[in-house]
Specification:
9-stranded antiparallel sheet; Alpha-Beta Plaits; 186 residues; 29% strand; alpha+beta
Length: 186
């Protein structure tokens, strides 16, 4: 009789968060709250103009920018649902702190594995995998020896190379951490 495979724990992954806003003090507050919950910021991407859709502009106003953060501590991938729910609460907290009647920040958590970038979303679609509590996993990009491979459903802004440096650097730091090295040493 064939022995059943034993369940294995998931490997740790590198938590990232995309932040969209149009005010520097909102970016700063979001980063502070994120770091309080998930540890020190390891990497920051450049700021990018967010002009790929007017979806957020209708909610948050013109002049939107996006940047990405990665965090020093690794997480387990199954934590992403609770992280997404918490980032939604943080969006509301920031909105209230700034006395706004409308959304002023978008926080998009996800994680980098050695093979892929997975983003968390509350929006269902055919290619998204349900996790728990209304949160879905969205496979955004794949990593290969040649670099980054986009998929049919990859968001338009993730299809351009502007974000790739950040994602590849984050993947490299993850690889060092998984091997037991400190990626912050020279």
């Amino acid at each position: 009789m064939k022995k059943m495979a034993e369940p294995q724990p998931f490997s740790p992954v590198k938590l990232i968060c995309g932040v969209i806003a149009n005010q520097m003090d909102v970016f700063n507050r979001a980063e502070k709250l994120l770091a309080e919950r998930w540890g020190p910021i390891e990497e920051r991407s450049s700021f990018f103009d967010f002009t790929w859709t007017d979806y957020y502009e209708r909610q948050m106003g013109p002049g939107l920018k996006r940047y990405f953060l990665s965090f020093e501590p690794l997480i387990l991938p199954e934590a992403i649902s609770s992280i997404k729910l918490t980032t939604n609460q943080l969006e509301e907290q920031i909105k209230k702190e700034f006395g706004s009647s409308h959304r002023i920040v978008n926080l998009d958590p996800g994680y980098v594995t050695p093979a892929a970038l997975i983003m968390a979303t509350m929006k269902n679609f055919a290619h998204r995998i349900p996790l728990v509590n209304g949160v879905y996993a969205h496979l955004e990009i794949l990593f290969s020896r040649q670099g980054i491979r986009v998929l049919e459903w990859t968001y338009p802004d993730f299809r351009t190379s502007t974000y790739y440096d950040f994602f590849l650097k984050t993947r490299k730091k993850l690889a060092f951490q998984l091997k037991g090295y400190n990626p912050n040493l020279p």
